[in-house]
Amino acid sequence: MKPAVARSIAHVRDRALTFCAGNRKLEQLVHAVEIIEQDRVPGIIVEAGVAMGGSAIVIGHAKTLGRPLRLYDVFAMMPAPGADDGPHANEVYRRFVARQSSSPTDRNYLDRVDDLAPFVVDNLRDAGLDLKRDSICLLKGDFRETLHGDEAVALAHIDCDWVESIRVCLERLTGRIPPGGIIVFDDYGSFEGCRRFLDAWIDDHPEFQVLSAEWSLVVRRYADQQKAGAARWQSSASVQGRWVARARLAAMLVPSGNSVLDLGAGGMAVGNYLLPSCRYTPSDVVKRREDCLVVNLDDMTTFPEDRFDTVLMLGVMEYLRNPAEVLARIAKTAPRLVMSYCIGTDEALAYRRAHGWINDFDEVGLRALLQRAGWTVERWLAIGIADRHMEVLIACNRSNLGSPS
Ligand SMILES: C[S@@+](CC[C@H](N)C(=O)[O-])C[C@H]1O[C@@H](n2cnc3c(N)ncnc32)[C@H](O)[C@@H]1O
Q1: CA 184, CA 314: separation in Å to the nearest integer?
Q2: Is there an atom of ligand 1 within 6 Å of 215 CB?
């Protein structure tokens, strides 16, 4: 990250100018800007939901000067949630409007809520941005009235809390995102209604790949050359829910203080559930965020050289061409392995192939494979039956502990 961008994050956090302060949301947003800039994805940047301009300041510093940044908001009291948002969101809003919160950010916002646009302009300027030079403009009003146009949108930061507003944004923006373009949904991890709505949206939009679903949800439209592989990584609401449950259980099988390599980390959900004393290193075929190693398990030359205490491999082995080789290589990297596998059954073969699963071990076969690769099974947990498959979570120790090679 460029030093000026890191400084802008500290600037908005220190001055309580952003509702996106926590959970590395701003870092994740910067990473999205870096991706579209690096890949030269054409189009403007849209932020829908600006409040005091905190995240807009960070985007403004991370983007190239000439790429327009359009900031959409009512720049007045934020609209109320609806029934789809659920009781928690409605309660949060009620307390917020009644000024029952003591957070400096909430007070900062509520003190200026009658006319936020001049405050945002001042904040942008104080943070070293110049509207003209940096191609930034504010568009005031409800998204229904303001969010028009047909220019390509390389990045949309959708941070407007409530389902109805997000729905309008997606109606207006989805078709404008070019291949390689990104949408960051800030509120995915914050509000239940938003999460439910977006899980269904992802399900209906396989042309978008989920880059991360940690707190914000980050999705990227497949570039043309990636289309072939797209269907495989298409996520669905049910699968996402299952992944999180699996990640939670897997994290419980990792001892405290472990250094952990996550192979095929996907949404990196497991990183949220490991004990704080663990050090987490995600890896994937796609560089999903800054600290993610790029590892293609079909090409062992990309396998990391470092040693770890535990390797995690969740929802990955079904896709591997060379599972025996991968398992043996992991045994050189770590004395412990926690992995999942959907046990093969004959009648579900067509389903397996349709999902890109190219190996079909039954329990006996899988146990034998692990043993041959140098692993002793310590725990074998049946964690669910979905789509006619029994999924198991397996914790193993290296059989010949003490001789890593
Ligand atoms: C959580 S705040 C945005 C936080 C901001 N990105 C930051 O860094 O702090 C949500 C914003 O969305 C705006 N918003 C929500 N629904 C809207 C709509 N339908 N039209 C215009 N603005 C909307 C609200 O006014 C509010 O300022």
Answers
A1: 25
A2: no
Stated as kind and residue range, the H or E segment containing 153 is strand 153-158
Per-residue confidence (pLDDT) for residue 212, from 0 to 100:
83
| Look-up of token digits 């028009």 | 148
The residue written with tokens 């947990």 in the block is: 381
Q: Are strands 217-221 and 182-185 parallel, antiparallel or unpaired?
A: antiparallel
Residue whose Cα lies nearest atom 11 of ligand 1: it is 49
Helix (H) or strand (E) holding 379: strand 375-386
8 A C-beta contact, residue 206 and residue 220: no
Both tokens assigned to 70: 């359009």
Residue 289 has a pLDDT of: 79
Residue 82 Cβ < 6 Å to ligand 1:
no
Sheet with 153-158: strands ordered across: 136-140, 69-73, 44-48, 153-158, 182-185, 217-221, 208-212
Pairing mode of beta strands 310-313, 336-343: parallel
DSSP state of 222: P
Query: Which residues, including other chains, have CB under 8 Å from residue 397's CB and lie 6 or more apart?
Result: 335, 336, 375, 376, 378
Between residues 402 and 126, the one the model is more confident about: 126
pTM comes to 0.62
Ligand 1 atom showing the smallest separation from residue 160 Cα: 12
108 ligand 1 Cβ < 6 A: no
Distance in Å, CA 79 to ligand 1 centroid: 8
Residues 6+ apart with CB under 8 A from 179: 41, 221, 222, 223, 224
Domains of the chain plus CATH, in order, are 3-233 (3.40.50.150), 239-398 (3.40.50.150)
